[in-house]
Write a structure and sequence with these properties.
It is a single chain. It is built from ten helices and ten strands. The chain is α/β, with parallel strands linked by helices and about 250 residues long. The protein has a domain of about 140 residues: Rossmann fold (3-Layer(aba) Sandwich), CATH 3.40.50.300. The longest helix is centred in the middle third of the chain and has 14 residues. It is globular and about 50 Å long. The model has no long low-confidence stretch (mean pLDDT about 95). Bound molecules: adenosine-5'-triphosphate (ATP) and magnesium ion. The site of adenosine-5'-triphosphate has 11 residues, from helix 1.
Length: about 250
């Protein structure tokens, strides 16, 4: 791993769900190998849409995107997806097998990996949910679903993790465990979150979106402690930088 190599390159990216409605406007940024980047911005800013584009769930964009030097286009998608672990904002959109084991085993089986059992076991153990191994996915709690989704994304030991609101619905112990997991992973990470304290602990860089545009990018602590900047774009300081009551 070379920490100065760009792993994701996005150049002049424009996208709209409808042609006449441009949502993501002229986005250009890089994510280096091993770098952990947080994406922040008010509801509807375009954060989830950006991640969906990176995994090919939306494709009608202009501009260029490279992942590990491979151009993001239909014919390269299968190859690119082998490198990515993606956690959807909505767990229900991600979980599609009837039980936890099969959901996490899906990608390893797809790539015909012999050690499917070990990969599933390790992923479950890492996020502390071995006890859910044989549960039906339907009927899991919101936080349990999120943890299964995270285990699924980790199972293949991807080069890059794209996490859309990973800490949402997690109790404080599981949230803390996830912070430790992410800190210990050497891979590149992109983490969308409204939990700015979570980003303070897991990211070195921040990219701020406002109405589909990048309005700030830079060092995590500098951006997340800049009250004026955050308030200008309808955000607030992380709780750990607010008063004792966080009000
Ligand atoms: N499939 C879709 N078709 C049309 N518009 C969509 C679609 N998905 C999202 N949008 C719109 O695009 C905009 C950006 O949505 P997106 O989900 O990317 O926002 P976000 O920054 O992730 O917000 P949040 O913090 O609420 O998750 C929103 O106005 C949303 O309504
Ligand atoms: Mg979102």
């Amino acid at each position: 791993m070379n920490l100065s190599n760009p792993y994701v390159v996005v150049d002049k990216l424009n996208f709209g769900y409808k042609k006449e409605n441009v949502l993501l406007k002229n986005l250009s940024f890089e994510i280096l190998e091993g770098e952990s980047v947080g994406i922040i911005g008010q509801n509807g800013a375009g954060k989830s849409t950006l991640l969906k584009l990176l995994v090919g769930l939306e494709s009608n964009f202009s501009g260029e995107v490279f992942i590990d030097k491979i151009a993001l286009k239909k014919e390269n998608l299968a190859l690119i997806l082998q490198k990515i672990g993606y956690v959807f904002q909505e767990s229900n959109h991600q979980l599609f097998m009837p039980n936890v084991y099969d959901d996490i085993a899906f990608a390893p089986r797809n790539y015909r990996l012999l050690e499917v059992d070990t990969l599933v076991h390790n992923a479950l153990e890492k996020v502390g949910i071995l006890h859910l191994k044989h549960r039906q996915t339907y009927g899991l709690s919101g936080g349990e679903k999120k943890l299964v989704c995270i285990a699924s994304a980790l199972a293949m030991n991807p080069d890059i993790l794209l996490l859309d609101e990973p800490s949402i619905t997690l109790d404080s112990k599981n949230r803390r465990n996830l912070i430790q997991i992410l800190k210990n992973l050497p891979q590149s990470k992109v983490i969308i979150s409204h939990d700015l304290d979570f980003l303070l602990e897991t990211c070195s860089k921040i990219l701020m979106l406002y109405r589909g545009e990048i309005v700030a990018q830079g060092k995590c602590k500098e951006i997340l402690t800049n009250k004026d900047l955050l308030e200008k774009y309808n955000l607030e300081l992380p709780l750990s930088y607010q008063g004792s009551l966080g009000i």
